[in-house]
Amino acid sequence: MTERKPVGQPEPMETAETRSRKSNDKPAKLSREVQARLGQQLRSMYDDVVNQGVPDRFADLLNQINGDNKGEK
Amino acid sequence: MDESVRKAVLGAVPSLRAFAISLCGNVDRADDLVQETLMRALANIDSFQPGTNMSAWLFTILRNHFRSEYRKRRREVEDSDGRYAESLKTQPEQHGQVEFREFREALAQLPSDQREALILVGASGFSYEEAANICGCAVGTIKSRVNRARTRLAELMSIDGVDDFGPDEQTRAVLAGGGQ
Q: What CATH architecture does domain B1-91 belong to?
């Protein structure tokens, strides 16, 4: 959890593999608090839309199709 | 159509819209995308396996449809991400927070595959496995995209650690006379 990488540590020879590993290591730097904060902002943005509920056009669309199906039966 | 299926589809619409807006960055286009998704889903409702996750099924259809449309339009409009950033600027600031605006702008700068992965896992509430199914890639790929997205967001917002974040927020609250 607290894996810190000293800045001055010499890097092994760079290959595609170590490069991708490096980018995977990076997030270890983000603290839980920062992640929580980013997550909160993300959900707040998303939930603004979710809380708008179902616009009429979609409810109408589904009702209409439902009605059509019943009509066929 | 079965009433329970109709309810499940309807119940997924709000989240589907939020995802669509995050892909397009434009509410009108996003709603068209949702409409097209629903039409496709209903036309193929027989291929939905009862008992599986309706939401994930609809998200997959929406994403695939968006991707194929996006590829077509890309020839016409090169700078899609730029347009995304632009469209965000025209949206009202619901929260009136500088930090929130910074967040949206930072999110708009992420590569689209990272933004998509982050939203599916971090906002839509899908597991890594479900997100991988929706995006048609490996679970490890989703994990790495989400990680890179978080790191990049923090970089773009110049957050290096708690010290940069927490106290600054408190300072703002004090300056704003928020008390507490």
A: Orthogonal Bundle (1.10)
Yes or no: domain B92-180 corresponds to CATH 3.40.50.720: no
Task: Give residue B25's region: left, alpha or beta (phi > 0; psi -120 to 50).
Answer: left
For testing contact with chain A, the best of B6, B13, B93, B118 (most A CBs within 10 A): B13
Give the C-alpha distances (Å, rounded to integers) separating A67 from A17, A70, B1, B5. 57, 5, 9, 14
Enter the ipTM: 0.74
Task: Map out the domains of chain B as residue ranges.
Answer: 1-91, 92-180
Gap between the Cα atoms of A47 and B71, Å rounded = 28
Q: In 10 A of CB B141, how many CB atoms?
A: 16
| pLDDT tens-digit readout, B92-122 | 555 456 777 888 889 989 999 999 999 999 9
* pTM confidence score: 0.72
* Three-class secondary structure of residue B65 per DSSP: helix
Residues of chain B contacting A54 with CB distance shorter than 8 Å:
10, 13-14
B128-135 vs B54-76: helix crossing angle, rounded to 10: 40
